[in-house]
Each structure stands twice: as structure tokens, then as C-alpha cells.
Amino acid sequence: MHVTFSKCANVRISRLTISAPGNSPNTDGIHVSGSTDVKISDSVIRTGDDCISIVSGSRSITATNIVCGPGHGISIGSLGANGAEHTVSDVLVDTARLEGTTNGVRIKTWQGGKGYARNIIFRNIVMDNVKNPIIIDQNYCDSPKSCGEQKSAVAVSGVTFQNVRGTSATAVAMDFDCSRTVPCRGITLQDVHLVTASGAPAKTFCRNVNLSKYGTVVPSTCSS
């Protein structure tokens, strides 16, 4: 990782330029762990992993005016690996441009974990040829072996995607793959417009998610 903040408070990060090859492994740009009141602004991050990753114990995190790509996008998590209890809350990502990333704005949690990811807002986001522009994955499994379904999960709730626009490099532009036992709740979509990079209509995948939509939402949402 390039820059890491662990167990910190009152952090201000601005005007950073972080660069690594797109195929370089585990080269997160800015990694925030166990920290509070962190403000990241006016930065360009081009790496081989998450541009910004926010993991357990973090709250009151703000990222504004971010350019990201290549990389794996802007991520909450992963959370809940090996049955751990992890928490992240009160995150705002406002005004970001993602270019050619393998994910856009993402929340990723392992089956079998505990805790929560809640009160998270992604707004004013532009996607340029991004795979999985909007994704909540409660079945994250970064392992050569199948993880399998488990009874517990990190609860994901109170997540808003507002004014997210641009092009998707995958047919599915919005992917909500949530836990059967601990579904995603209070997920809001407002003024979203995503099409495939070719201009063709994109799709939404929904599993075990409670969705609300306001304004125009493209692609259309699905029931689960």
C-alpha cells in the first residue's frame, strides 16, 4: 500500500498524486483502518488495487474531488473475514471520476462475519468505462476455495448512490449481491444513469436487497 492511516484521528489528506502500474498487486492508494474524522480531497490515484480502501473501525470518513483509475475503485472493505466483527460508518464520497477501473464504488463483505457497514453516501460520481460501477457484495470471497453460505454476515444498511453517471464496461452496471440471512437494507438510488460503453442498455442484478429509488434510475431496478 502507498499511504496507510491506522488508528488515527483528525487526518487531512489533500493534493496527493499516487501512481503505480495497473497490473501491480495490492498497491492500494490510500488505506484507512480504525480511524475517525479523515478527510481526503483533490487527489489523483492510479494503482493496481483500490484507489481508496476503508476498513474496520473507521467512521466519519470523507473523500471529495478524487480521480481514480486504473485500479479497483473506491471500496468499503473487505469486512468480516474469518468470522471477524468489523464496523464502518458515516462515509461520504462526493465528486469522483473513475476511469477504466475493475470496480466503481463498492462495499465488500465476507460471509460469516459480524458487525455493520452503514450510513454511507456515494454522490456526484462519473464512471468512464468502469466494470461493476455500483456494487454491494456480501458474498465476497478472495480465496481459491469456495467460501459457501454462512448464517452470519456484516449488516449493510443506509447506503445511498446519488447522481452516478457514465459508462459501464460490464453488462451489469449495478450489482447488489446480498446475504440471504442478513439482507441489505435501506439502499437508495437517486438520479442514476449508467449505460454500457457501447451505448447499449445495462442491467441490474439484485439478490436479497431492499431498494428505494428517486428521480430517474437507469438501468431500472429489480425486485428481490
TrEMBL record:
Compartments reported by the entry: Secreted, Cell wall
InterPro entries registered for this protein in UniProt: Glyco_hydro_28, PbH1, Pectin_lyas_fold, Pectin_lyase_fold/virulence
PROSITE patterns xrefs: POLYGALACTURONASE
Active-site residue numbers: H72
The species this protein was found in: Spirodela intermedia (Intermediate duckweed)
Protein name per UniProt: Polygalacturonase
Main location class: secreted
Family named by the database record: Belongs to the glycosyl hydrolase 28 family.
Keywords, alphabetical: Cell wall, Cell wall biogenesis/degradation, Glycosidase, Hydrolase, Secreted
The keyword Hydrolase is annotated on this UniProt entry: yes
Database matches in SUPFAM superfamilies: Pectin lyase-like (SSF51126)
